[in-house]
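Hi R.,

Here's the chain you asked about this morning:
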Amino acid sequence: MSARQTRMTEERFLSVLQHELSSSVTWSVEHLQEDQLKNLQYYLGMPMGNEIKGRSQVISWDVFEVIESAMPGFIEPFFSGDTIGKFEPKGPEDVQWAEQATDYVNLIIKERNAGFLLFNTWIKDSLLSKVGVVRGEWRDEDPKRKQFRGLSDQQMTLLAQDPRTEIIEHAARPIPGMPPMNPAQMIQMGGQVPMLHDVTVLQAQPGCVKLENVRPENFILTSGIGTLDKARVIGEWVVYTRSELKELGFKQHDTAQSFDLATAVLEGSLQDVRDGFTTELALQDDAGGDRSLQEIRLFKGFIRADYNGDGVAEWRRVLVAGGEDPLLENEEAEGHNYCVLSPILIPHRVIGLGYADPARPIADVKTALTRQYLDSLYLANRPRTYVNLNANVSMDDLLSDRIGGFIRGRGPAGDALQPLQTTLVARDALEGLQLADNMRETRLGIPKYNPGLEADALHKTATGVRSINNLVDKRQKMTLRILAETGIKDLFRLVLKLITVYQDGPAMVRRRGRVVQFDPRGWSPDMDVSIEVGVGTSDETETMMQLQQFGQFMAWGQQVGVVSPRNVHQFGLRLAKNARLRGAEQDLLTPPPDQPPPPPPDPKLQLAQFEAQQEQQKFQAEAQIEQQ
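And here is the predicted structure, written out as tokens:
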């Protein structure tokens, strides 16, 4: 029997893929999507379904408050400085490229991919839906159609010589008002009459790294794994129109059907809540449109399988639909291109908890207590009333809300009407709400204390406030470090890998007031990454005071020679970063490299100089004696 296995058939490959997707979807539906749906409903303040007609139906927005209060502390540390991450050289040969890689990758993430909005959705998804996902891929842009009119012969020649340009339309015309040329002029011009040119061209555009957020409910991941390295399948449900499939060059654009599992997931209630409309209406609108715009639901992602039969499972990049010929794309890949965040890690699980998960039970408690508080006030202000029907009380008069109105009846009012006494529980409900707030603060590290809202804020001592903020900062720093060491660091590695593999030429970019050339073809894709998450809000002032005190030492140290101009420059950058002053590198001049200290003098030369000085002093002394 041959040691080498046979190549996997397409039917067998689809069977393996179907099994992995079915297992992952089942786990996602049973363990994730119900919580994700509830968290989103609580975040949007939607009705809970247990409302009683005629009673308070108020909803506690604790999930919204927790997430929106936490977001600034998780976004600002990454965007307060000039860089989010920094590459460290893997070896001596990477030292000269590490700084360029840092600048270029930060530029791609922050500016070319709307980094702030990308991170805002990414982190909020993780806080709300347990997991936030970003997909990164290299895209070759379509050529741009451009028109030029009135080009000279020289301009036309340069345009035709551009390898990125393809001329698709060209028309030449004489120069208006130009007199006829004599034979001598014709010879001088090479026998050609100067013309003006009207051309239409297609100009090739350089490829780029494209970063996009993935909806958490569409994300597919192998169940029961502890790290992404152990995943057997990872990807997402996507929607393409038949027209888009044809533009991408897939022959199945007219026969492809939606993937069965994708249809079940994308037509779920979670998708409806997020989109704000019902699936039935969406399907009706889609069915009545042009067939070329009909939407097909596909699986796009990566799977590990021994497709080539060498006994080792490799990553395969796939795009799969339904129908008779479902496999649209199946190519070998070096790895997947997904970066995952989960703010509260659970050991041995990739997807942990979001901030909405522990906040949701507290929202249930506060909703119930707030409703009881309001119902108690309503009953106290408008209690139920006992009516003696024998007194012929007019029910229309009794039910009227008119101020100062009269109620008709017979006999004394005390015998006809009697308000029913109810127990006022408003005070007890308020105490319960305060207890729930304390639970939220302890559970999530997000304090209720706010000087602008709390009545006794002026009685808070500075030490107490500092202690509260220190505890908050520790929880915030912990979550920030988790985000930095997981998905964000993976994102930097992914972008570096994409540009080193796919970018086929240098890129000219204006940075810090000058044009810089970035050519990643010589960079190592294995450089280490360090993510700076900044400091907490409570110790920023303390850190700034310490830096100012150290600045006094820097000024003294420069006088005695223990501080170089380069040390002062680095200190200035650090001081500006802590003060959140962006662009400090443009304001500070880069000092020249530190000069090495001069070599120590030769001892023999020093001895000779000393003896020469002694002889000179002896000669001067003898000369003075002779003069006397």
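One quick note: Confidence is low (pLDDT under 50) at residues 277-285, 450-465, 534-538.

Cheers,
M.
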